[in-house]
């Protein structure tokens, strides 16, 4: 009986050849990355202006609360009264760089009641943007509001809570803010850190300290003029 000859192996298909080709796989990954990157860039270009517009609107809405306090701002709104928020840019010259701040002057019936400053800096996970309320002479902090953050959920993102932000109200601008752990002390410029998020807490105080250092002189000069 004639022995059965073994069958010759089938040549690999085109798909299998492509699948096993490392160079082609690398180019495919690169191509997909470029496609996703372009898509994300397109979304950012489309949504970017809208996001900035929303931030400006939110800033204007927060001006009364940050300058007067939540209760007084709500009472004013119920009475149909308005607090003007006059925007301006203040340029601060520093060695080797220039910083520009968006500042809103809060006025009512022609009187200057305070200021709201938009400031930002690096947090633990990403950039933090906040609004800083100051009195008319920039001598005291009247409130802060976190405009944007991407800090760790359940930890660093607690910087947005009323309880943590209320620590800043009434603190003078004559001393640097410092972050402490384990509970707020009787020292006015000490801010109790969010538990497990000291870096996020310190980032906020650093942003405020920098903004105050840059703007206290210009705003005090404006505030000394009264109306």
Question: How would you summarize the topology of this molecule?
Answer:
Blueprint: H1 14-19, H2 22-68, H3 70-78, E1 84-94, E2 97-108, E3 111-122, E4 127-135, E5 141-148, H4 162-165, E6 178-180, E7 190-192, H5 198-223
Parallel strand pairs: 6-7
Antiparallel strand pairs: 1-2, 2-3, 3-4, 4-5
Helix pairs in contact: 2-3
Write a structural description.
This protein is an alpha+beta fold. It has one domain (52-224). Helices cover 41% and strands 26% of the residues. The protein is built from 5 helices and 7 strands. The protein has helices spanning 14-19, 22-68, 70-78, 162-165, 198-223, and strands at 84-94, 97-108, 111-122, 127-135, 141-148, 178-180, 190-192. The strands form 2 sheets. A 5-stranded antiparallel β-sheet has the order 1-2-3-4-5, with helices on both faces. Strands 6-7 form a two-stranded parallel sheet. Strand 2 (97-108) and strand 3 form a beta hairpin. Helix 2 crosses helix 3. The longest helix has 47 residues, at 22-68. The relative contact order is 0.11. The model has no long low-confidence stretch (mean pLDDT 85). It is an enzyme of class 7 (translocase). Its main location: membrane. Part of a membrane-bound complex that couples electron transfer with translocation of ions across the membrane.
Number of strands: 7
Give the SSE string. Answer: HHHEEEEEHEEH
The total tally of domains equals 1
Which residues sit in consecutive blocks of at least 5 with pLDDT less than 50?
none
Alpha-carbon distance between the two ends: 116 Å
Query: Whole-number radius of gyration?
Result: 28 Å
Strand line-up of the largest beta sheet: 1-2-3-4-5
Q: Helical residue percent?
A: 40-55%
Subcellular location: Cell membrane
Keywords: Cell membrane, Electron transport, Flavoprotein, FMN, Membrane, Phosphoprotein, Translocase, Transmembrane, Transmembrane helix, Transport
Subunit structure: The complex is composed of six subunits: RnfA, RnfB, RnfC, RnfD, RnfE and RnfG.
Family: Belongs to the RnfG family.
